[in-house]
Amino acid sequence: MPAGYSLSDFAFDLRRHQAPDQLWVTSGWTAARALPGTVCGVGGCFAPPYAALDSSLTVTFEVDGRPIGDGVRPGIAGFGLGLLTGGGTWRPDRIERSGTFHQYRDGRLVSLAVHSRLTPRHGAGGYTLEVRVDNRGDRDIEIVLRPQLSAGHPVACRLRNGAGCRRSRPSLRPS
Fold first, then answer.
1. Does residue 148 lie within any of the structural domains?
2. Residue 137 domain flag
3. Structural domain tally of the chain?
4. pLDDT digit string, tens, across residues 40-64
5. Helix, strand or coil for residue 81?
6. Quick check: is 54 in a domain?
7. Residue range 79-131, pLDDT digits in tens
8. Domain enclosing residue 137, as ranges
């Protein structure tokens, strides 16, 4: 890092990002993409010579036995259905996101603040997803995180003279 600069100097608010589907972060070894509209979702990973661009990791929260999904539509249509995104910060080495769930149901309040940090690994392929859940309610609750990983269609890529990753596709011939 040049003298006088820190990683924070390059950070920006995710609420101002114009292309949320293309929000990648890299370690110089691995790149990972934040899944749009989620607090904890990861939507792809590239770690040469492997690419899993359509892979995904999603997290469902189970609160007192009731599932709460990550990534609902904001506004009244999504109210009380799941975790609403509240923004975050992109930095060259990580993406930090936050969200909230607040619902009064059956005479009981469930109020959660969720924070995640997506960090690509250096020296090996993959990423780390850290999740912190804060109970803002007035009673103890049981929270279980249920991650779901979809491998998608990973491929081994050949890097050719800096030209990037090229997928080999089967040729289609008429029969």
1. yes
2. yes
3. 1
4. 999 999 988 888 989 999 999 999 9
5. coil
6. yes
7. 557 898 888 999 989 999 999 998 887 888 899 999 999 999 999 889 999 99
8. 19-159
